[in-house]
Amino acid sequence: MWAFINKLRSPKWFYAISARLQPWFWAAALILIVTGTVWGLAFAPADYQQGNSFRIIYVHVPAAFLAQSIFVSMAIAGLVFMVWKIKVADMAAAMMAPLGAAMTFIALFSGAVWGVPTWGTWWMWDARLTSMLILLFLYLGVIALRGAFTSRDSASRAASVLAMVGVINIPIIKYSVDWWYTLHQPATFSITGRAAMPMEMWAPLLIMVLGFYSFFIALTLMRTRSEILRRESNKRWVRDLAGEER
Amino acid sequence: MMGTEGSLSGEVPVALRGEPGGGLAVAFWATLKRDLVLLLRRRSEVMNPLVFFAIVITLFPIGISPDPQLLTAIAPGLLWVAALLAALLSLDSLFRADYDDGTLEQLLLTPQPLAMLALAKVAVHWLLTGLPLALMAPLLGIMLALPAGSYGVLAISLALGSASLSLIGAIGAALTVGLSRGGVLLSLLVLPLYIPVLIFGAGAVQAAIFGDGVMAHLAILGALLALALILAPLAIAASLRISING
User: Fold this and answer.
1) For residue range B113-154, what is the model confidence (pLDDT) as tens digits?
2) CB A165 to CB B243 under 8 A?
3) Which chain A residues are Cβ-neighbours of B245 within 8 angstroms?
4) Does some domain include residue B16?
5) Is residue B212 part of a domain?
6) Which range, of A44-48, A55-59, B17-21, averages the lowest pLDDT?
7) Which of B242, B243, B244, B245 to mutate to test the interface with A (most CBs of A within 10 A)?
8) Count of structural domains, chain B
9) What percentage of chain A's residues is helix, strand, coil (to nearest 5)?
């Protein structure tokens, strides 16, 4: 256990191991997303109520899943960084934040686009959309805080603390927004019930979700690798590497 | 407060290496008293959030409509949002002066846990911002045509809720105290975290107007406060350490 953690401390080790893992995740992401997209858009049956407009679910739901998962991963990486001083964890957290914010934005935007055929309006103060919007603000806060510090170490630690505070608050925010929504509920259609989804619609969705996760892991590995090179650019092994490739 | 038993009951705790002695309780009360005295000597700073609160509330009937029926409908939310913003404005100065003159570093060096001393500072912030806002709110409620039965609930919900707001906000204040222009960033970090308190606070007043059960809302506000009281001081202390060392 300790040997493993000590290994993780070394960005060099991470750089080497991620080089081997990265292609697998890129391949999985490519295959799953292409399969899921083609299956979902071309072969899955149209919804009896919403027609073809329901197909936006194949982008909306995976993006919403990732938006939440990335915040949790960011907080875990922050905790790992604060407790064991593993710098790679912080680099990964820094690289995840913009991706998470982008996924939250995609989920919000696809939700708004989906709202036009189903609700007849671009925006509705629906409980899920509202908590997504708050999640976007939380992401922007973490990114802004990291950018505000001049010292990298303070920035890393401050962003880690904020991510952890945020992750404790996310369930509280989610449940209070649900409560608020049930109090003020306007007349709405609910988005297609999850359980009522037939297999032919559900399978491509699962494939898309897995594809999005693979994409997230692959992209984070890639971005973390370049961040390692950037931050460790004065280390010997990085210089050797650069010399080798020159 | 916590840990008061030992020293208040007469038995003087053993002083560390002959320093002027005192346990946690002594340090806590000393910090509380010092901050109270300092703030009470700068009365205008204490008054400013209250005046801000009154002015913002005046803006709404002018900007929207003086129609009492409309005002009654939006009064709970308006009063809560305005009070929340007023409390937010004063947060930036919570640790600022102590950071500038080095007091914060001395607090860091004391043998007592920083979390408890920070809690004393937050308690002062609540006593001189949250509590006066809560006491003043019914007066502004009259101006917004709030029905007679809801003034007590408004004051209690604001008193309970603003304590949570002070605690959560202090995390943001501690994270940004080292930055020269932390003000806007502070609100960016803190406002999304305020949303649950806003939902249940405004919800309590609304429930009082409609004659629904108020206790559920107040109980949840109390639960949020209990949670914040336990977790926030730790986050504040961690954030202060980051801001000072960075």
Assistant:
1) 899 999 999 999 999 999 999 999 999 999 998 888 889 999
2) no
3) 154
4) no
5) yes
6) B17-21
7) B242
8) 1
9) 85, 0, 15
